[in-house]
Amino acid sequence: MAKSVRRKLRQIERGGIRSAEERVQHILDERTESLASRRRDEASPVQALPRALVCGSGRERFGIPVETVAEVLPPQKVMPIPDGPQALVGLFGRGGRLVSVIDLALALGIEPSSTEDGDHHVVLLRRDQPQVALRVERAYAVADIHLLTGEATGFRTEAVTGYARVLDAAGDPADILSLLDTERLLRSFLYISPVSGV
């Protein structure tokens, strides 16, 4: 410590005569820069964890990216669409607009564990036109997730893009999620709706 102070005083003398205040300020500025650079070096880059809405359909759990979810609604009465695809279960009105409701289990070709409409949650997706909601058997919570794979291989649908585990889980295999890409899921429904604007 004493050697570094002497070295600094020599540098100050070589640079010309300065007032005591200027020397103190110079030393303080150098210490501040040194501490700031040390903290920058020690700090590891903080990576934001992905978050997903955890939903259940059939006997599986799915993760829907939170940025694609507008709202989770209680069960809704829907008006059926005659001659529509089986997974397109109907329409309901919200804010003066029609919302198409797609049953997630039927859209993915899995066996629903409950057929009672009153037990389902409705996940309104964040999109302008057309407005779409997914009917799921249960919307559990929004959770931080840890990605297990990049791309899903061998899954029965292109809408599943990978797998993840809910963080802070006890390691139960039921906590493994299939990650959904909602736009891929909706692709086959968006252009075949018999009702205009839906």
TrEMBL record:
InterPro entries: CheW, CheW-like_dom_sf, CheW-lke_dom. It comes from the Bacteria. SMART domains: CheW (SM00260). Residues 49-191 form the CheW-like domain. Pfam families: CheW (PF01584). Transmembrane segments: none annotated. This is Chemotaxis protein CheW.
